[in-house]
Request: fold
Amino acid sequence: DETYFSEPLTALLLFASAWLLVDAFRRSENHPTLSRLVLASVPPSLLASERLTMAIFFPIFALTVLCLTRGRLDKRVTSTSVYSILPTIVVFAYLAWNWSRFGDPMQMGYPDRFEGSRPPDAFDESPLRGLHGLLLNNGKGLLFFALPAAIGLLVCRDLHRRAGWLGTWLLFVPLVPLT
Reply:
């Protein structure tokens, strides 16, 4: 397998991103400290450097920071900016690297056609078979391969009790790309 364990690493970094963001707000009265926001921005930055398509979560997390930070608008914008600066730098560095390697920032290095002019796999499987593969496939199923997601389901009630609806909402953020 050529993925080098990227799926569970992606799940772990996504879980860490949500957890540190929840923790930053849980430990503060009005708004999280800037150092906690910088710490919370490290996992999403690593997530984008590992898989650029995961940058879809940055706006969601940044809006969460903007909405949950209490106080004047300038404090809210400052908190959101501090949280967003490291992931933004990583995304632009990744795009610049792709541009220098492939001549196009959105080219990720995958060929348009595989060996023998065979097109890449398409999404033409039945939804039931896809769900089985997503959840129970040996070696890559979500419940076996990405244990942080399974652990997230187990701690959902406790996280809701400790962090309120923010914690519960952030546990379901990984469902965004599936919709």
